Amino acid sequence: MEGESRGPVVVVPGEVIGSGNYRAGDNAVRIGNSVVATRVGIRRGGPDAVSVIPLKGFYVPRVGDLVVGIVCDVTYNMWKVDINSPYFGVLPATDVFGRRFDPTRDDPLRTFDIGTVLKAKIVAYDRSQDPLLTIREPELGKADFGFLVRVNPAKIARVIGRGGSMLSKIQQASNSRAIVGQNGTVIVTTNDPAMRDKLIRALRLIEDEAHTYGLTEKVVELISGKVEGE
Questions:
Q1: DSSP secondary structure string, 140-169?
Q2: Domain over 9-54 is classified CATH 2.40.50.100
Q3: Which of 15, 20, 24, 169 has the CB geometry, 3.0–4.6 Å to 30, for a possible disulfide?
Q4: pLDDT tens string 22-58
Q5: Residue 36 forms beta bridges with which residues?
Q6: 147-224: CATH homologous superfamily?
Q7: CATH 3.40.50.150 corresponds to the domain 66-142
Q8: Overall pTM > 0.90
Q9: Are the C-beta atoms of residues 135 and 96 closer than 8 Å to each other?
Q10: Domain regions of the chain by residue span
């Protein structure tokens, strides 16, 4: 593969972003001995793959993704969840009540009302049906605390950072906790109203400057109050 540059590299469709025995990751295809970008975005190299983080886009569900959604409809046997996508997530009542679910006895509305924020995982999806969700894993389920921030789903990888580096820096600098959904919805928990405003500004900064070099340092400085005007 070609040598890595110091800062993020913005690429365009058709541009060669790697060569050799590297696998084509997201928003990239392999043509012959080369990996070629299919979207405008930031080139991201890994130990065995190269991909592109798109500068713009909407959330396309993928099996295994953690999503943060809002219950928007309740029926006798399921919850419909807004996951910030053209597709609604479906959480079956059996996922919560178990196989012995009885609609004459178990009331889904009393469990998760409309407007409830859920942390869920996508367990099945294809374009012929809406994404199937589960909350039957540790740390999943109803979100009782925090506030929501919507981020362009195409920038979520930058919010998390390589190996979780950006997210870790944000939480350490702000003494807060953040749960990042791959669908572009972030739950942030902090008891400091001033820090809440800074965290929102930090996420907007990442959204606006995802392609720039030195972004992590800018975000930490903003949160720490070391920028002009703080």
A1: -EE--S-EEEE--GGGHHHHH-GGGHHHHH
A2: yes
A3: 24
A4: 899 888 999 999 999 988 888 888 778 888 877 666 7
A5: 16, 29
A6: K Homology domain, type 1 (3.30.1370.10)
A7: no
A8: no
A9: yes
A10: 9-54, 66-142, 147-224
